[in-house]
């Protein structure tokens, strides 16, 4: 709980710094002033760092943020974490994403996100694909039965995978 609170206060602090930077524009009298040039430079650097992080150039983004002194304006850790989850999903591993879901469960619930459900469903499908039928059934009982009725259709379709082999020509299991 302490870790969550310290992380939360870090993000609140960064948000305040970003707002202060944006508010700084209102105190600049003209666009021809040196203050506006400095403000614009910081803004441009922030945009560049965000772009580089989104494109996966984390080291370059970090170096630019350090050199320009704008580390508090960017969420390097957040992008690093999301990249790690993305790479794991590309390797067909849901473990890191499920761990992230567990850490952010309350926010996901507030957003009514189905991300965790989709991950759990994919894990089930991968077990069926690997022909680990008993593990798939146990997994579905443990993780899929806890979801609301809104997901019943998807769960029923996934359960149909147990009855039809991956070579089936029947829709929607094809």
* Beta-strand content: under 5%
Q: Give the tally of structural domains.
A: 2
The unreliable regions are none
Helix and strand run: HHHHHHHHH
Radius of gyration: 23 Å
Number of DSSP E strands:
0
Number of helices: 9
Instruction: Determine the structural class based on helices, strands and strand pairing.
Output: mainly alpha
Measured distance between first and last alpha carbons: 46 Å
**Share in helix:** over 70%
Average pLDDT over all residues: 87
Could you describe the largest sheet, including whether it forms a barrel?
A: none
Folded structure, characterized:
The protein is mainly alpha-helical. It folds into two domains: 77 residues, no CATH class; 72 residues, no CATH class. 72% of the residues lie in helices and 0% in strands. It is elongated and about 70 Å long. The model has no long low-confidence stretch (mean pLDDT 87).
Features:
174 residues, mainly alpha, 2 domains, 9 helices, 0% strand, CTLH_C, ubiquitin-protein transferase activity, LisH, 2277_t:CDS:1, CTLH/CRA
Topology at a glance:
Blueprint: H1 2-24, H2 34-54, H3 58-68, H4 76-90, H5 95-103, H6 105-111, H7 115-129, H8 133-144, H9 152-163
Protein name: 2277_t:CDS:1
Family: Belongs to the FYV10 family.
GO cellular component, one term: nucleus
Q: Could you provide a short overview of the structure?
A:
This protein has 174 residues and is mostly helical.
């Amino acid at each position: 709980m302490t870790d969550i609170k310290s992380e939360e206060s870090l993000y609140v602090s960064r948000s305040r710094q970003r707002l202060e930077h944006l508010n700084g524009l209102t105190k600049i009298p003209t666009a021809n002033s040196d203050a506006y040039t400095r403000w614009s430079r910081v803004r441009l650097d922030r945009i560049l760092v965000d772009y580089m992080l989104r494109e996966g150039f984390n080291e370059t983004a970090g170096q630019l943020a350090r050199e320009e002194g704008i580390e508090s304006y960017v969420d390097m850790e957040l992008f690093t974490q999301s990249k790690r989850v993305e790479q794991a999903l590309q390797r067909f591993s849901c473990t890191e994403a499920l761990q992230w879901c567990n850490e952010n469960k309350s926010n996901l619930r507030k957003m009514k996100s189905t991300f965790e459900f989709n991950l759990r469903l994919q894990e089930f499908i991968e077990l069926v694909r690997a022909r680990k039928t008993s593990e798939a059934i146990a997994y579905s009982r443990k993780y899929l039965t806890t979801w609301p009725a809104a997901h019943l259709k998807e769960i029923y379709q996934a359960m149909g995978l147990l009855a039809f082999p991956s070579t089936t020509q029947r829709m929607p299991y094809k």
